[in-house]
Amino acid sequence: MVFISSTISIPEGEIELTAIRAQGPGGQNVNKVSSAIHLRFDIPASSLSALVKSRLHKLSDQRISKEGIVVIKAQRYRSQDKNRVEALQRLQEMVQSAMFTPKTRRPTRPTKGSQLRRMDKKTQQGQKKDRRSKPGLD
Fold first, then answer.
1. CATH number where 52 lies
2. Out of 39, 53, 84, 96, which residue is the most buried by the measure of CB atoms under 10 Å away?
3. pLDDT tens, residue by residue, 80-89
4. Does a structural domain hold residue 57?
5. CB atoms < 10 A from the CB of 120, how many?
6. pTM for this one?
7. Is the pLDDT of residue 121 over 90?
8. For residue 102, what are the CA distances in angstroms to 8, 10, 63?
9. Spatial CA neighbour of 41 closest among 90, 80, 108
10. What torsion do the CA atoms of 53, 68, 101, 60 make, to the nearest 10 degrees?
């Protein structure tokens, strides 16, 4: 079980973990050992609530395909176990971010005092520019 919060968890059977060869530098070891982890998680087939599923779909994350499959590749560490933990942690963070309900923005208006200060400042700027002109050109 991957615990997302105190009320939400994902069963291990819904997460597909595959060991693959890592990319990049690493000498001979990188060609022999499959230390990177490829995590696949099918959002529509998961046991998450419908609200969390829809929010996950709406996330603008390149790791989520059009079909709703999350693909995470973890290859930071040389150890397969550490990469597995990191991949599961990334999935956990993604689902937690989808659970968060953003606060609705209520539009505000400027106060009367701030409007008056702005207008006073504008008239002062205009008077300053008028004083810069040559006399008698009115």
1. 3.30.160.20
2. 39
3. 888 888 888 8
4. yes
5. 10
6. 0.63
7. yes
8. 19, 23, 21
9. 90
10. -170
